[in-house]
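Chapter review: from sequence to fold.
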Amino acid sequence: MARGREPRGPAGHGLSGEGTGRRYLGHADQGSHVVLFVRDSPGDDIGPGAPFLCLGACTYVSHEGRKPIAITWKVRRAMPGETFRAASVVAS
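The token string follows.
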């Protein structure tokens, strides 16, 4: 790679972030997969360490920023209704 040139990601986007961000953005080209796990909060009524919900495999859509980097993913199957409603409130 030429000095001073930024690597290019999917759809010609410049790659943002450091090693982890680059790995996420170029995951399809590298033959790897991203599996998304989510939770409402870090704790629940029992205490810290609330369980995660696996939403399954997802694909890169877009990203913004450098540090921090915000990545938009598309999940390959529908989210459970309650999880979708909670995510919609946070996103608005």
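Two observations follow directly from the output. The CA atoms of residues 39 and 51 lie 7 Å apart. DSSP finds two helices and five strands in the chain.
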